[in-house]
Amino acid sequence: MSTEITPLWEVFIRSRGGLAHRHVGSLHAADATLALQAARDVYTRRGEGLSLWVVPSNAITASDPTDRDMLFEPTASKIYRHPTFYEVPDEVGHM
Amino acid sequence: MNRLALARADDALILGHRLSEWCGHAPALEEDLALANIALDLIGQARSLYTLAGAATGHDEDHLAYLRDERAFTNLLLVERPNGDFAVTITRQFLYSAYIDPYWRSIAATQSPLAPIAAKAAKESAYHLRHAAEWLIRLGDGTAESHRRAQTALTQLWPYTDELFDPITPDDIAVPRETWDTTVNAVLAEATLTRPDPKWQHRGGRLGTHTEHLGHLLAEMQSLHRSNPGATW
After folding, report:
1. What percent of chain B has pLDDT over 90?
2. Are residues A38 and B138, on separate chains, in Cβ contact within 8 Å?
3. Which pTM was predicted?
4. Are A11 and A54 in contact (CB under 8 A)?
5. What's the helix, strand, coil split of chain B in %, to 5?
6. Which pLDDT score is estimated for A92?
7. If you ran DSSP here, which 8-state letter would residue B205 be given?
8. Domain-by-domain residue ranges, chain B?
9. At residue A89, does pLDDT exceed 90?
10. Among the ranges given (A37-46, A68-77, B72-81, B107-116), the one the predictor scored with the smallest mean pLDDT
């Protein structure tokens, strides 16, 4: 199977009920069904998940690394946006 | 000795070992892991079944796997067939899984001593069947080359499929042939593959008369234990 004609897929796993799907890696597969099978075989061998998503990598629009300063630098000086000035009660659980 | 558990264990061990031969050699990393996963499921099933089979006579799983000779193995001839190309491996897996998946589910619902093992194995075999079926559909209905290879594999392995339906002991259950036919025919139709109709069907695995391939497999699989008796990790 040549990787040149086999599309790339991004894999997301929900590890427990209530948590969001998290990106765990990528793989090559010919179509969505085989991608889901491969995701199960490659990324859930140690009981990592309860639910899987696969997304064609070429469906992702990414920010340009050269725009980094413009996009992300201005937030560095705004520490008042961090919720570090109060304590989260334990009962809240995952945030 | 529980002959039923022993034969089902032999099927699982030999097929599991065959799949393990792909480790590091599969056509893609994803399939390398998939085949190794299935191999480990099968070897896990074999361990439980050997423990059950040997309980009455005091033989442990290592003894039954590593210290019996070819004639004492009662696995299907189908599962000892060499891996061949990827199409042969997938076709062999599909033909076996289409039988053993409904078998595990049926026997899990009985009072058989195999029932608890079958309940666990059924979840594994359901995935093995789906994995092999999806691949066979894509090989058959893929390129001219993959279709040719899948059809060749099917024609080559078909004369080993009747043996699947032979009950191992009088108290064994039998999956109806129609159940297997329904699964197989549906996948072959989608895969645009032609169901072979050979004049001759091979048998003998259940009696210990094997093809020339099993001896080579056992020589490799058993050599470590035979040269280092009692070896453990």
Report:
1. 97
2. no
3. 0.91
4. yes
5. 70, 0, 30
6. 83
7. G
8. 3-227
9. no
10. A68-77
The CA distance from A40 to the nearest CA of chain B, in Å, is 9
- Does residue A29 surpass a pLDDT of 80? yes
Residue A29 neighbours by CB distance under 10 Å = 23
Structure tokens at B68: 């019996």
Interface of B with A (CB under 8 A): 27-31, 33-34, 37, 127, 130-131, 134-135, 138
Q: How far is A48 from chain B (nearest CA, A)?
A: 15
Average pLDDT over residues A58-66: 95
Tell me which residue of B150, B159, B161, B133 sits closest to B193, measured CA to CA.
Answer: B150
Has the ipTM of the complex gone over 0.90? no
3-state secondary structure of B61: helix
Architecture label for domain A8-88: Roll (3.10)
Measured in degrees and rounded to the nearest 5, phi and psi for residue A8 equal: -95, 140
Q: What span, in angstroms and rounded, lies between the C-alpha atoms of B127 and A31?
A: 18
Is B3-227 assigned to CATH 3.40.50.300? no
3-class DSSP string for B110-166: CCCCCHHHHHHHHHHHHHHHHHHHHHHHHHHCCCHHHHHHHHHHHHHHHHHCHHHHC
pLDDT at A3: 47
The domain segmentation of chain A, as residue ranges, is 8-88
Are the beta carbons of B30 and A30 separated by less than 8 Å?
Answer: no
Of B30, B130, B138, nearest to A28 by CB-CB distance is B30
